[in-house]
Amino acid sequence: MQRDTPLFTEEVLQKHVKFLKRHLLLLPASHQSTDVNLMAVVFYAFESLAALGQDIATDYQSNLKWMRSNYVSQKVTDEELSGFIGGPTMNIPDTITLSLPNTLFGLLTLVLMRDMEFFDKVLNKKTLGKFVSRCQLKENGAFVSVLDYKLGKASIIDSHDLRFCYIAVAILYTIGCRTEDDFKEYIDVDSLVEFILSQRSAFGGFGAFGEAHAGYTSCALSALKLLNKLDELSSLEKEKTLQWLIDRQVTREGCWEKQDISNEYYNEDDHGGFQGRENKSADTCYAFWCVNSISILYPNLKTMLQTEPVKDHLLNRTQNTLTGGFSKCYKEDADLYHTCLGIAALKLMEGSFNGALCIPTHAAKEFDL
């Protein structure tokens, strides 16, 4: 039997590994703003390394204690909440600094580190669930990412959108919620689903203010999948969303050829990549968001999507084979975020990635996710 050609040569693979590991060492002063979200930095690097076949649990065993130290309990009046803070600088006395994104990043990082003991003996699912619960807005079912740092109520200045709805659901799924009753112990599932469905665009896809966006669409579909609520979308709505997603793939073929003449911003180097909205350039991260959404709606991905042009765009346009890593587009330098999602998109098309949780399939299966 003929084997598939590896995505990366050994030389390029090692460059990606070195690029990712550099972000786990001393970061330059320009990255100081990430101190409040170190869980994101660690997760992006670990997720990518794990997807590339690196043994995270063995290589970073000595860092397990530090990772666990970012899981904290904080009191609101007489109720105890728990979750992850962004890093040591956010462990502030008498101040609520838990956040939904850092909590999901922290949990999934410990999954990648195969820390079964944390989930069995350290994690307090009840208090973490209460934190998630407090982030839900009673008026529309959506979620904010943080609480008021003194009052412990859902922040009135934070945005509420599909990103945080997905993150809330993914957190609960990761700590063991599977049935509707499991989720309802902590959140109002009905109002959440109603909010998600209210974000549908008339032309397919999901987004705020009626404008579909690939990232928000992925969040909406992933949340519905984890909630086992995809059937809340009619067949027509699924079809419209699927068509909208497929149309986000930029090509220099067919009617797109006329773009070269009529649109000064069109660049044929975008061929094969995905844009996040209409009339935008291709961007590495949207390859993941779109491919993930398509795979949720139509699991037999390769019969619905031209995967080879996507791979070509990622490997020959946005991959940096000199320093390692992936960039947003062919003109820019590689960065950690786009490296994470570029590798995720490639592995998702290869069939070895759980897109709804954004971790390699082998890690998800080990924790029954």
Automatic annotation (TrEMBL):
<protein>
    <recommendedName>
        <fullName>Prenyltransferase alpha-alpha toroid domain-containing protein</fullName>
    </recommendedName>
</protein>
<dbReference type="InterPro" id="IPR001330">
    <property type="entry name" value="Prenyltrans"/>
</dbReference>
<keyword id="KW-0862">Zinc</keyword>
<dbReference type="InterPro" id="IPR045089">
    <property type="entry name" value="PGGT1B-like"/>
</dbReference>
<dbReference type="GO" id="GO:0004662">
    <property type="term" value="F:CAAX-protein geranylgeranyltransferase activity"/>
</dbReference>
<feature type="domain" description="Prenyltransferase alpha-alpha toroid">
    <location>
        <begin position="14"/>
        <end position="351"/>
    </location>
</feature>
<dbReference type="GO" id="GO:0005953">
    <property type="term" value="C:CAAX-protein geranylgeranyltransferase complex"/>
</dbReference>
<comment type="similarity">
    <text>Belongs to the protein prenyltransferase subunit beta family.</text>
</comment>
<keyword id="KW-0677">Repeat</keyword>
<keyword id="KW-0808">Transferase</keyword>
<keyword id="KW-0479">Metal-binding</keyword>
<dbReference type="Pfam" id="PF00432">
    <property type="entry name" value="Prenyltrans"/>
</dbReference>
<dbReference type="InterPro" id="IPR008930">
    <property type="entry name" value="Terpenoid_cyclase/PrenylTrfase"/>
</dbReference>
<keyword id="KW-0637">Prenyltransferase</keyword>
<dbReference type="GO" id="GO:0046872">
    <property type="term" value="F:metal ion binding"/>
</dbReference>
